[in-house]
Design brief:
The complex is a heterodimer of chains A (184) and B (578).
Chain A lengths: L17 H27 L8 E3 L2 H15 E4 L6 E3 L6 E7 L2 E3 L1 E5 L4 E7 L4 E6 L3 E5 L3 E7 L5 E7 L11 E7 L6
Parallel strand pairs in A: 3-6, 4-7, 6-12
Antiparallel strand pairs in A: 1-10, 2-3, 4-5, 7-10, 8-9, 8-11, 11-12
Chain B lengths: L6 E5 L2 E7 L6 E3 H32 L8 H34 L8 H24 L16 H30 L9 H31 L8 H12 L1 H22 L6 H14 L16 H8 L1 H27 L8 H4 L6 H24 L5 H4 L4 H28 L8 H27 L22 H34 L8 H4 L8 H8 L8 H27 L5
Antiparallel strand pairs in B: 1-2, 2-3
Helix pairs in contact in B: 1-2, 1-3, 1-16, 2-3, 2-4, 2-5, 2-7, 3-4, 4-5, 5-6, 5-7, 5-8, 7-10, 7-12, 7-14, 8-10, 9-10, 10-12, 10-19, 12-14, 12-15, 12-19, 14-15, 14-16, 15-16
Classes of the chains: A alpha+beta (184), B mainly alpha (578).
Chain lengths: 184, 578
């Protein structure tokens, strides 16, 4: 039994039954397939995590985001007064996380590719674009650059999904996606 | 403790007090027995406390109930993680380590005083961190990601607990050395002890990782260190956080083998295969720190792919092997017990009325189907983009830690009570339904949290209606339904948990004493052995034909493959990014 010492003292020479061997072979091959899928998706797939990241001081990132917002703000959001920045199609976009907001709001064009710069000014936050389902971790001191191509138009929420203190559940941002050449 | 049956004699080279177990004839060192009892009792107390916190969390996340205010919710959620994920599980594992070394190897426990010191440190540390959390200034979640800061005694308590656990592990290794030296067993250690050794080796790695990160974090919290890098913190913290779940993995698989051995007489199909599968855990499980770092900026794709897949899914291979050899061993044993009709008579006529067996089989099945498959999918580099930090993550780990580990430990308790506490389980009828009730509840929470997670619901979040937020966002109505159902099943699981605690405490206090006459009956219903006729028809125990197991693992494999590729399909539909 499994709670007593093996009956055969030289158990490492025992023959392994066929059924067990076949299962081991299947499980091993399945592991190789799953491993290869991740590599394959880097080559052929369109949804991959960006490796582009830089050390940056929170002050500098805040400054850059403010400059970006000043330059591209097209209006203020009616309900909240947040600036809505609409950068040129294909350009660099900034969004910062701080206790407890995502700033500014963004307006992007459908089908265009943007370079989204993300960082936090204080603690860690979680960038969760819903209902699309893209989730990225945002750290203070690291500027993460993600290339993103919206393929649907509409209003999307940026939920913070990394616990960041007592106001965590109030931290919601917004990205609007509009048809090319139009605005909301 | 029954001193009446105890003898003082030479147990190994040193005089020790022991009693002889009426069921197995093993000599049980009374010092080891007391330590097993103390650790098991501490474990159950923390399960009670942490379980109540867990119910409060689930009732708050049930939108229609929304029990706690936000500050209390985050506090209670921090305490829930601490008490059940760390304290309940590690205390129980200490009991398992002493059982698998001293009792199974028929050996006195090395340095019982050190083991008591270990117990004291763990208890003191665990209480200290609990106090820190309950004081209200350390609601940083179990993970305490920097630069969010807790009070210094939050970290200090964890460090003391880890040091205690490390000491206990050293006592375990010491006992192995003594048993070998004094030849208390012949040949190789039993498979269950082998699994416990694997758990202990992983525990050393885990506790070392914990010390490496928590000591500087403690110094940072008191002001001696100015900065802790937030990504580095996570890499090392998860070397403890995820690897400690791998201790559970090794411990629970050992327990599955032990229960199968005791209740139906199962022996491993092949010692070589089962031991190699355990060995794969030592080599590869630690890489799983990466599972929590798949969307962290600054780590390369190569690093993520290699680590998240445990090299080439070699630790998953280990688990898939156990996933076949366990039902296989049970089927082979049951066929030897005489249940040879058809494909599934062995399973139909298994001792389902024995809570140790039913708990073990539910743990095995739910762990494999819900926890194992979801874990591999969640740990796939790109698929993680869709699910990171959603409530899918707690859904997954409740399937592994609650359905898997906790249920396995509960099942084992029904054997520990008669064997170590020497008490007959009170209320056998309630004990019979307890694993089903708890398993149903735990499976429900896991499934509905995973369901809500696929709809984007965030984990660790007080209010999915965002009523206090400046910017509004609406989750689909289905998400609210799922969170409500999660609450309902949390209530079911709590009933199962409460029943477990009542039965356990009641048995320890009021259970009928077990002696040589009723010990076998006290272990619960078991199949009548019809070994001789079965062996004639089936040849030697080594030759076997296990159609039932082949069907079960085929169903498992097909589910795994389908679910895996369905998630790739979902991924291909989200916005392109890179």
């Amino acid at each position: 039994m499994a709670i007593t010492s093996p009956e055969e003292r030289i158990w490492w020479n025992e023959r392994i039954e066929r059924g067990e061997l076949i299962w081991i072979a299947i499980a091993f091959c399945w592991g190789i397939i799953m491993f290869s899928m991740m590599v394959y998706w880097h080559i052929e797939g369109n949804q991959n995590f960006s490796n582009e990241a830089y050390r940056i001081s929170p002050k500098v990132f805040e400054q850059r985001t403010e400059e970006f917002t000043k330059k591209f703000t097209v209006r203020e959001d009616e309900n909240t007064g947040y600036p809505v920045a609409k950068p040129p199609a294909g350009g660099d976009v900034y969004m910062l996380a701080r206790l407890w907001e995502w700033w500014p709001m963004l307006e992007l064009e459908k089908g265009q590719t943007y370079r989204l710069h993300l960082s936090s000014l204080d603690w860690q936050h979680g960038f969760s674009l819903q209902p699309i389902g893209i989730n990225l971790q945002v750290h203070p001191g690291i500027e993460h650059v993600v290339t993103l191509t919206p393929t649907q138009s509409g209003t999307f929420g940026v939920i913070c999904n990394e616990f960041c203190g007592q106001g965590h559940h109030q931290m919601v941002g917004r990205i609007n996606v509009v048809e090319p050449g139009k605005s909301q | 403790m029954s001193i009446a049956t105890a003898e003082t004699g030479i147990m190994g080279g040193i005089a020790a007090k022991f009693r002889t177990c009426p069921a197995t004839g093993l000599k049980v060192d009374l010092a080891a027995q007391s330590l097993i009892k103390a650790n098991a009792v501490a474990a159950v107390v923390f399960l009670l406390v942490g379980g109540v916190f867990g119910l409060m969390v689930a009732l708050t996340r049930w939108p229609a109930v929304h029990l706690l205010p936000s500050d209390w919710f985050y506090l209670v959620l921090t305490a829930h993680g601490l008490d059940v994920l760390l304290l309940w599980i590690i205390f129980f594992e200490m009991a398992v380590l002493y059982f698998a070394s001293s009792v199974l190897l028929n050996c006195r426990l090395a340095a019982p005083k050190v083991a008591w010191a270990a117990f004291g440190l763990m208890l003191f540390g665990g209480l200290m961190t609990n106090v820190a959390v309950l004081q209200g200034d350390s609601s940083v979640m179990f993970t305490s990601y920097v630069p969010m800061k807790a009070e210094p005694h939050f970290y200090l308590g964890l460090i003391l607990f880890a040091v205690g656990a490390l000491l206990g592990t050293i006592v375990f290794f010491g006992t192995l050395v003594i048993a070998k030296e004094e030849q208390t067993y012949e040949g190789s250690v039993p498979l269950v002890t082998f699994g416990a050794i694997v758990a202990a080796i992983i525990a050393v790695f885990t506790l070392a990782s914990g010390a490496i990160i928590l000591v500087p974090t403690f110094l940072w919290s008191v002001g001696y260190i100015s900065h802790i890098d937030s990504v580095m913190y996570k890499v090392i913290w998860w070397g403890m956080g995820h690897s400690s779940q791998q201790i559970n993995m090794a411990a629970q698989v050992s327990i599955w083998y032990a229960i199968a051995a005791i209740t139906v007489g199962a022996k491993p199909l092949s010692e070589k295969v089962s031991r190699t599968a355990f060995f794969l855990y030592i080599l590869f499980l630690q890489l799983a720190s990466a599972h929590h770092l798949l969307v962290e900026p600054g780590l390369s794709a190569e690093w993520r792919i290699f680590n998240t897949s445990y090299a080439l899914y070699l630790a998953v291979l280990g688990s898939m092997i156990h996933g076949m050899t366990l039902p296989g061993a049970i089927e082979a044993a049951q066929r030897r017990n005489g249940y040879m009709n058809g494909v599934f008579e062995w399973l139909r006529k298994a001792p389902w009325g024995n809570p140790a067996f039913s708990g073990m089989f539910l743990s095995l099945t739910l762990f494999g189907f819900l926890g194992g498959i979801s874990g591999v999918v969640l740990g796939t580099e790109q698929i993680n983009l869709m699910l990171h930090n959603t409530i899918y993550v707690p859904g997954h780990f409740h399937a592994t830690v609650v359905c898997g580990t906790t249920l396995a430990f509960m099942a084992m308790t029904y054997l520990v009570l008669p064997l170590i506490f020497q008490r007959e389980v009170i209320w056998p009828k309630l004990a019979k339904i307890q694993p089903y009730l708890f398993g149903l509840g735990a499976a429900g929470i896991s499934l509905f949290m995973m369901g809500a997670g696929t709809l984007g619901v965030s984990r660790r979040h007080w209010d999915i209606t965002f009523s206090d937020a400046a910017v509004s966002f609406d989750y689909p109505a289905t998400a609210f339904l799922m969170m409500g159902l999660n609450g309902v099943f949390a209530v079911v699981a709590s009933l199962g948990g409460a029943l477990y605690i009542l039965i356990t405490v009641g048995t320890v206090l009021f259970g009928k004493k077990v002696d040589s006459k009723n010990i076998v009956a006290a272990l619960g219903p078991m199949p009548q052995r019809q070994v001789s006729s079965a062996i004639k028809e089936y040849g030697s125990a080594g030759t076997w034909n296990l159609p039932g197991t082949y069907i079960l693992v085929s169903v498992f494999f097909v589910s795994f493959v389908l679910y895996y590729f369905v998630n790739w399909k979902y991924l291909s539909e989200i916005w392109p990014l890179g």
